[in-house]
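Query form — protein methylated-DNA--[protein]-cysteine S-methyltransferase

QUESTION: What is the three-dimensional structure of this chain?
INPUT:
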Amino acid sequence: MTNAAILPLPEAEALAAFARRDRSYDGRFVVGVRTTGIYCRPSCPARRPRPENMALYPDIPSAQAAGLRACKRCLPEDAMQDREAVRAALDAISGQGGPVTMSVLAERTGYSPDHLARIFRRAVGLSPAEYGRALRLERARDALGREASVTDAILEAGYETPSRFYDEAKDRLGMTPSAWQRGGEGVTIRWAAVPTTLGDMLVAATEKGICRLSFGEGVDSLADRFPHAELVEGGEGFADLLRRVIAEVEAPGSDPDIPLDVKGTAFQERIWAELRRIPAGETRSYAQLAAAAGHPKAVRAAGSANGANNVAVLIPCHRVVRSDGSVGGYAYGPEIKSALLEREKNR
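ANSWER: The structure tokens for methylated-DNA--[protein]-cysteine S-methyltransferase are given below.
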């Protein structure tokens, strides 16, 4: 195998993606086959060529400049066009103050609404409407921290009316907009610090779900994160949820439906959603995580979003490792990360 041009990712990672026919890498590079004179996308279903007959190219023009033609089975040019269409749709949604209809996005990209919706969800992990709502909520959170008036903040974020914001935010913010603006004032957070086989663990939850899970921290750190919330230790209703969390820590992946109350930017929430899609016992690199979230070049940002996770184990950021397979960093130390991975591997 020869590397014909500089790739935007490590060669070993590209080869591994090609070997497993990983669709999330389509559009990031192409594979040339000298014996047939064609180039393929990473997910091509055709039989894999011998390594000595392969060449990796960063993009289609590079492969074409080498005299190769597109594979008629996997149609790599279509993958590149799909990626550009998704990027155009993301730009259109991000640049619009309010909701953008599928008909407008379809006209902007030249795709049918149904096809655009399918490739958008596959690339981003959300539908265009879901992505738009997440983006508006992100803007609302930012505006709530700046504006004196909640209504002004809601309108600045792109909502036509406050009622529309409340409808979209009620299941996602975990607290009212005014409480969010005042640093959690009026919100009750129940908490407990308990011993586990991985060390002392802090667990905290609002009425909607777990908002903090960490190791080696106490209630003081919780007060720093939620300075105006009412912090209440324990509670009968909280006890059942706490038992589920402890069981999940001792056997990661056994209870994926524990409710969460987490908040982040639209990008962070896409990364967290992708983390929860990684099966227990498997790992991903930061590059794979960024690609799965629809932003293959945002590897560093994916790492930052991974580190911004407030609920260890339940959002399994420990399943992300370095591209060479080594464990890498972890907020609570590599020993805990390795222990979690080992438990999942031996389930």
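ADDITIONAL NOTE: The chain has a mean pLDDT of 83.
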